[in-house]
Batch of 4 targets.
Target 1
Amino acid sequence: MTAARLFLRDNGLSITFGLLFLLTLVGQAFAGNADFNNRRLADGGAPLGLTSYLVSSDFAVDVAENWQSEYLQFFLFVMATVWLVQRGSPESKAPKDLGRESDRQQQLGRFATEASPAWARAGGWRTAVFSRSLGTVMATIFLLSWLAQSVAGRSAYNAEQLATLQDPVSWLGYVTSADFWNRSLQNWQSEFLAIGSMAILAVYLRERGSPESKPVGAPHAVTDEQG
Amino acid sequence: MIELLHGRTAALAAAVLACLSAAGCGAQADGPAGDVASGFVAAIADGDGERACGLLADDTVEFVESSRDEDCPAVLAALDLPSDPVSELQVWGDGAQARTAGDTLFLRDGPSGWRVVAAGCTSRTSGPYSCELEAP
């Protein structure tokens, strides 16, 4: 197997979803632009070209509101699975491992190996930071995306306010508005439904060969096993 | 465990910067919308109904003429709209709001550029402004 084929095989998951992301983002750009122009023409406005639409607040808010909810979902899932379990689910660890776990389990301190990441072996603040790096990055991206949603959402909202002969609102006014919370909560509820149903359905259902599933023949009650 | 990630940090930062810098994503102090608003109130101050009507949106002119059964300049002359200079302007996307000492105007960026869609507007406790001149 050539080096290129080996690289593609070893990174197939991230490459595939990276490409799917780009393709669907392009699709969203074209569909969103068409939808935006339909509404503008109906209101007597002028249509926007694709490039102008891509830097418009309408496109930015539609993108950001979905991103923030995805990163919130994964942040909460990463953190919740430290302290909460779902018996029988491959998304959960065993009840006996609740919490941050021992240094032996986490390969830290004298249990670290030569192959452990440098900051895991370093100890002190580096290991403390590295031990929380996944949740920290997820939370940071969530907050930045949510901030972007509020900035772009305010702009799009104010354009609608002016079209209906109403006053524009301040940023604080927007983040306490029904529009902002409707956009946020409608995304959050679907993320929580998806992750909750995944955790419980994986107790009783199987997908042969997927690490998101237990082995097909594994008992329902077995936790922390992947197939 | 679920390991899928959605989105890209760099793209998000680019979207935020683009949004913050784009005309459609923030308020502007002046520009084409301000020129049209100033031109409209100046025409009203000069008593030049033809010029003022040329700065109104087409659907506003049509509605005003059909509802009052007079041509646009005659309607403007009868309305006695405030004509103080524009002191404040907000632009959001294809909409703008201009304030004078005695009036609030609304503008829209349409196929013919920026045009006044409503004038002689006063705010109400809630809901849209009440305007002497507006499209349906």
Note: Residues 32-46 of chain B form the longest helix (15 residues).
Target 2
Amino acid sequence: MGVGIEVKNLNAWYGNNHTLQDINLHIPANQATALIGPSGCGKSTFVRCLNRMHETNPIAKVEGSVHIGDLDVYNDASPVEIRRRVGMVFQRPNPFPTMSIYDNVASGLRLNGFRNRRVLDEVVERSLKHAALWDEVKDDLKKKSGASLSGGQQQRLCIARALAVDPEVLLMDEPASALDPVSTAKIEDLIFQLKSQYTIVIVTHNMQQAARVAERTGFFLSGKLVEFDTTHKIFTNPGDKRTEDYITGRFG
Amino acid sequence: MSGLPVTSDPASKSPAPANENQPPSAVRSFLLSRGNSAWSDRAFKWLMFICALSVFFIVALIAWQLILRSQLTISKFGLSFFFKSAWDPVSGDFGALPFIYGTLVSSLVALVIAVPLAVGVAVFLTEMCPKFLRGPLSFLTELLAAIPSVVYGLWAVFVLVPILREHVNPFLMKALGWTGLFAGPNFGIGILAAGVILAIMILPIISSLTREVMTAVPHSQREAVLALGATRWEMIRMGVLRNARIGIVGAIILGLGRALGETMAVTMVIGNRPEIVKSLLSLGYSMSSVIANEFSEASDDLYLSALIEIGLALFVVTIIVNALARVLVWAVTRGAPARVV
């Protein structure tokens, strides 16, 4: 089961660039939450702050507090522990090209020293089924490299890899922006299936996508969270003029 | 979708009408006057083909000359030349085995020492080093490659050999003497000394090429591993080294090639005695050293022919070692793509 995320006074910088300014929001458990906004508005930085990937850049800095469930992300735990509990899917599919499909999915568990082959087999099968990839790859799990799949399959493989470690939260940073419409539809179906079991945060450029998959939507603009509400409210009756301008295509 | 406007039909916005009476622009008439460029394309193709062939011809020419000029020993000893330990210019009995052994073993020692060190240097420089140190440190490692080999030889004779003789070798004899690889007498010079100096000489090429392939691994691979909850070392092992391994093996092969052929520094410290002894502390001889040392003294045709056939042996050994290394790479990475996307 997923857990909720509580963000208080989150500020983030890249060098002198104040990319996130006083973000406060509550992301509910077992729902999909979409973050929209124009390029460079800070939405990617925001999700990267949730699993402490932001600080892997040497010039990056974060202040404020993030709680995932009852875990204080910036005080209770090391980044490594956080990332074991929070899965992430990136904009460009990044499977490990030197590993087979099976090894790609098993990589998270193997990394943490998990060696039980029977359980590994089960986890790999379950994760690939969850990611709606099982039927397409089950015959050459150990024969084909992760890089031999098509772009959309690679992205679903990356989702399976993230699901294999059974995370409480799944962060998706524009997971479909490099994919064609058919693959995009598959990923969206997947998010729909997965959100009953995981808390999903999805960054997207595509407003229809946000409207289709998410219960809640946040609109970011130049480092600030302008509006955060139910998706229905954001798209039908936004409270802020800037949100309305953005979703109607008047700027951005 | 409510709230989203319907996009207007792009065809309804017609572009500005073209002026049909205008003469073609200067750019367009220039490009049209260039013809189909087929000739220059073909010339380029042949030029590149000749360049590629020249490599093949040079190799073939070297092999041909080596075989031609070692006819005397080839006809006298046949294949047994490569498996005999005799080296007696006075009675005219020659064999290449001690030299092949010396070259292979000293190069192997060099690889054992240099590879972990070079990969370590590369990992530190690409993944851990603070930015301000990266430039100076990589410059220094590459500077090692620019030092002439005779200078390495001198340094080895005056600095490395005494250190080995006084400190390292006694310790190795005491700790690892039971293996038989480190048995006395302790001269200081010998196969181990040659291996150590070779290791220092091939370190820069291996580390700079390794650094190059590691930098080429996309950042997204590192992020993928980190996001799974990897420590920094796990990230380097799984996200970087694993992806760069083919390139790293290539770097090692190039280093090995340099070690096999290195002459001057090895000649100065290997001891120059054509013997096959298990101990790495004993004196040895390498193929390139014997050619360099004895070429000017080769008084009769058979002696000269023997030295040239040693050159042929070096040529063949280098080819075999390279081929083996490639087979090894192929066997390890079967099924995986040659490079990271």
Note: Chain A touches chain B through 42 residues (CB under 8 Å).
Target 3
Amino acid sequence: MTLGQAFGSVITAARAGAEWAWAELYDDLAPLVLGYLRGRGAAEPEDLTGEVFLHMVRDVGSFEGNERDFRSWTLSIAHHRLLDDIRYRKRRPAEPAVEEVERQTVPGGDVEAEALSSLGSAHVVRIIQTLSPDQRDVLLLRMLADLTIEEIAGILDKRPGAVKALQRRGLANLRKKISHKGVPL
Amino acid sequence: MDAYQSDMVWLSRISEAKIERVLAGEYTGEDPSLHALATYAQDAKATFSAAPDEATRAIHLMAMAETAAGLDSPPASEIAPAPSRPFSRAKVVLSSLIASLIGKIALVGVAVAATTGGLAATGSLPDPAQDALARAAEKVGFDLPASDNDAGVPEDLPDGAQGSSAASVLDVIRSWDDDKGCEFGHAVATAAGGHPGACKDEQGDDEGSKNTGKPEARGGRPEGAGKPEGTPHEKPAGAGEGQGGKPEGTPDDKPEGAGKPEAAPGGGSDRSGETDSGSSDHGDGHDSGGVVAPPSDVPAGGSGVGLPNSLPGAKP
């Protein structure tokens, strides 16, 4: 949350169509949205991120709440947009391979990719992909967006108890994978 | 205990507060497993927090600006925000349904009006409707033909009826121009050879049929009708009933040419019920012109004005 006190004026200006306000919101939330979509294994996370923000522009008039609510609302759009994309791609031949996802997590050229890979990002991606989609949703939203159980339950249309159970099972699976694969931490 | 159960047991021993710290990458405890998970969380944040590159950012912002600019002119999403869309759609469906319903009703109304108007213009409607429409149209300046109810007096008598009481009855009817009330009925009944009772003025108001201006002939039983039973006032109450004089059950229950007398002049009106309504302009006993042919078992020459109440099959 980087907007803080300015959020009210920014959202008002964005509703009025001010480009600077949309740029502020984009810079604040795009990394989060893109990271969530990458972690969930979206085939084209950048394209989906753009669609999420276009959806936001169209529906910002109906939004009510504070900056935290706006973050949840944005991630809710991203989640539903991702589900739409997955349904659409199920009618297509193939899901992207893990290598494709790993490549997508690397912004920039090969040198940067090697640097990130040395830090274990490829292993991070590989491990998170072993979790179930629901567990990935919960853990990514918890780790990346720092959302509460209740907020995640609202985004995923699940009960808080179910989200909590998914979180525990996801953590147990992560622990097992980390210990087995010897992820360089 | 398998690996999954051991994992669950391990997790169950971890408090929610510890889980929160692990997921935030801030765990500082001594549990190596939790420490590893917290480190993984930190790496995940670093890995998945990369911002879009500049080219992607520029494309996205340009698309957002175009979309926002497009919303300035007819902002459909603002005019009809998402929560109200189902209602708006239902409203449209409802209004179109109502419109089509009203349209159908109006169409049916126009069709009925056109059909009725056409029938009225040609005088083909039933007599009461034709009369009512003709009166209504006359008030608004249209001239529609009225029903030909006044065609009840025949020009000639059948051969068999010549010289009988029917001729006298016909004479009375022809000679009686106006005020066809009780006296008229009385005269017709007398001409038919009956013994009519007195009119209201003479007898008082103990006769219901007379209170309505009903012709005396209702009670006057024509002797020539071949049914001498029953006195003229044998059934005074029946005189006030609409179907009292209808010769039901007779072979010629509904003779052809009703309203157009062919055989028996001065025959009983099949609309005697209308005369019972008390309407003064229908109290003449034959005003409707619905002169029925006499039943086949009744001599033609003996038919009088007003059907006898005691005819076989006559309704009580």
Note: Chain A touches chain B through 54 residues (CB under 8 Å).
Target 4
Amino acid sequence: MSLSVDHRFGEGGLVPPLSFRKTGLSVDAYVKNASLFCAVLIVGLVAAMLVVLAYAAAPTFQTFGFSFFTTNVWNPVTDHYGAVSAIYGTVVTSFLALLMALPVGFGIAFFLVELAPPSFVRPLRIAIELLAGIPSIVFGFWGLFVLAPLFQSSIQPFLIDHLGGMPLVGGLFAGPAFGVGLLTASCILAIMVLPFLAAFLTDVFNTVSPLLKESAYAIGATRWEVMRSIVVPSTGASVMGGIMLALGRALGETMAVTFVIGNAHRLSASLLAPGTTISASIANEFNEATNALHTSSLLALGLTLFAITFVILACGKGLVLMLERGKGA
Amino acid sequence: MSFHYQRRIWTNRLFTFFAAASATIGISLLLIILFRIFSEGISAFSFDTFTRTTPSPGGEGGLINAIVGSLMMSALAMIIAIPVGLLGGVYLAEYDRKSKLSSVVRFLNDILLSAPSICFGMFAYEIMVRPMHRFSGYAGAVALAFIAIPVILRTTEDMLILVPNQLREAAAALGAPIWHIVATISFQTVRHGIITGLLLAFARIAGETAPLLFTALNNQFWNIPMDGPTPNLPVTIYQLALSPYPNWHRLAWAGAMIITLVVLSLNIVTRLMTDRAIKKRA
């Protein structure tokens, strides 16, 4: 149903009343243009960010070319920079975070949509939404003072003792227990994206028509079977989209990670070792970078991060839109 | 009972248990974090927190300059962001719902909503701090405004779309031009929702740290020059937390509690407002 008002007074024969005939129409043109300007400003902002960051990062790309993305060096003394360790840390922490948050988020959504008694749903929903709003510095701060010591004293030694010696996965849990490191950062990230993921999945699962679900229950399906064979398949694209939106958030998260990543520009197979992410490097080094190439390299990292998250968020958004369109048709 | 049937029952039980367990684990984990923040925060909290400025190394102090600086920057950011966000939302909802341009703006706006906040900081650094050769509260406010604009634009559009078209048509039939319809009919009808959006945007920027690290920087004095390094709560917490002094850590806990409290209560207020608005309509 499209009920659009024909706003073209004066053009299409509609005559505005006297009081507006002179002033009203010109004001309308001003307001329309001003609001158009503000809407276009969003496009301008994205474009300006890309252009300005690219311009500021240009010295780095001129010096190192594409090898900026393939070399594993980060040495402000010799003025040689490569993004591999930062990109590796970003991807690994985000991936691990989603790996941990996804089952729990899915479980919460399953619980809220199919299992929870109605009086439970609303308070739980509100709690999740409130938690999604807590600033990331609070999580990072908690990670530094509570989670990292806990990891150092008990969880990491346990992992090293029990998994460190295993074939295949042993390398992931090798080395001393630092407390801070890739695994700790991943856990904090997982806790941070959990509310977003749970809320998103609940919303998506709630869009499934009750008719479909009731039909399945009527032929004797269990709750899990309804979830697996009706709810998830009919929302597949949106679920994928939501996962990508969560990934986009995790990739760009700064403060939660900076506290507990360890800030070491190096590649190590072990998840217990300190590492760095793009955003953590920028947060740590930007104010201390004294030579122009160092600053420019950090800006190049920022541009890379912006580009990666842009693509991932765009894909996620596209997938979500696909389902909405499908519903509308 | 057949084996097959048994298996289905047990699979269902297994996953039901898994879902209930993950809901319990997830929620309690988050509540544990909140509890810790509040218990440590309250014990670290004192009268000094609101009356003294951030301490020199090893010394005692409070957070008053950081709190006031944060408020000033967030307020300025909102002053910049509100007109842009509201007007952008008005364009998408009232003037042009279906064109290509509108869908592009909508799409990019949604991406900006979850774009890394540190990128906004770098952008503000490049356009404000570098040309002016100084860190400033203005640069910090601009970075925060970039984060607030998409939030305001999105909620404004979402709210204006809820206004029934019959109302607009009735006003148009009386001869009102669009700007008049928007100002007196649309905004009036959903004003609670729009104020909710503004509060949410404020809650969002109140705790942002990354964009302020290299725009507003920080300082530890009772001196809040918006055209120089401006003290602010998030960066202060960051610096206090990474310091080696136990009394600074305690102050950081108090700061983390204040931010959490502000953001949580803003979110709860918006929640209550929306609930009331929904009840009124029903």
Note: The mean pLDDT of chain B is 90.
